[in-house]
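[stage:ingest] chain + small molecule (uridine-5'-diphosphate)
[stage:ingest] validated
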Amino acid sequence: MRVLVTGGAGYIGSHTVLALVAAGHDVVVVDDFSNAKKAVVSRLEELAGRQIPVHAFDLTDAARTDELFATEQIDAVIHFAAFKAVGESVQKPAMYYRNNLDTTLSLVEAMQRHGVTRFVFSSSATVYGEHAPVPYQEDWDRLDSSNPYGQTKVMIERILTDVAAVDEAWRVALLRYFNPVGAHPSGRIGEDPTGTPNNLMPYLSQVAVGRREKLTIFGGDYPTADGTGERDYIHVEDLATGHVAALEHLDTMVTRTRAFNLGTGTGTSVLSLLRAFERAVGRELPYEIGPRRPGDLAVTYADPARAHAELGWRATRTIDDMCADTWRWQSQNPQGYPED
Ligand code: UDP
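[stage:predict] done
[stage:export] tokens:
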């Protein structure tokens, strides 16, 4: 298939571009580079061994989005492009709703005009909200999120469901990610957050490379084995193959819309992840236990059974793989990608 990857220069998008090429698909990228560096593209081309068409514009530009569908023969869309910082979304809710909803609606309307009906959406485990029991299962029907970023995911899942409900040609896979970490094993592409990292793994790797003084663990008094929060960390390479599996499954999907958890099914504590990262780096890393971060849950992890049963996909990489690959990327690129 010829697949449009929105946000294809971003962290998960770039790894998915390579997985699509490896699976024999053609890829077209659209990215506005508001949170990605241009250097990603040359590295993708180097790893893919071919040129990748890249359109640099903002999807809220409906005219250019329409022109893209008019000129490229697109068979399917994988939609990653979005603002994604939870804390920032609390401070700037209107900006998050405006951007994440507008880009998606512009894309959906262009698809409708050009008869493109296959859609894979980058959703998040945050849609399970505060009340769903763990492990999270896809049929939980009280979708909610404690922050505007997560609410945009809940809303977009609903929009796509409604769009598919009135056109029998549409097939939509809603992929609910748990905690993506790791990097391509080459060390050439990886996560390069702008400013201070909000997430644990990039923070930890920046401590290891000397860009941050020490890790602060947000809470040591959770009702878990070691008192620190547990999450379902999933290697970005596994996540990437999950997108390919979902894409290739769309045409055989019985329902028009289907949600899939992409996780491992195992929770790992902050302290366990720190210890695993120390093994990858080969030395101890400085940390302190601080107060809990508001809004954090003690334990979240996936029930990944549906993705295995229906997509034939499961995560195979271990926590040690995730740490080794993150460290290879971070140590080879201590400041992330070069500036444009
Ligand atoms: N965490 C932490 N220190 C940090 C960043 C995160 O202790 O500097 C913890 C956080 O409380 C949670 C886990 O690491 O238990 C994963 O947090 P992250 O922000 O990466 O993902 P999310 O909150 O979305 O699950």
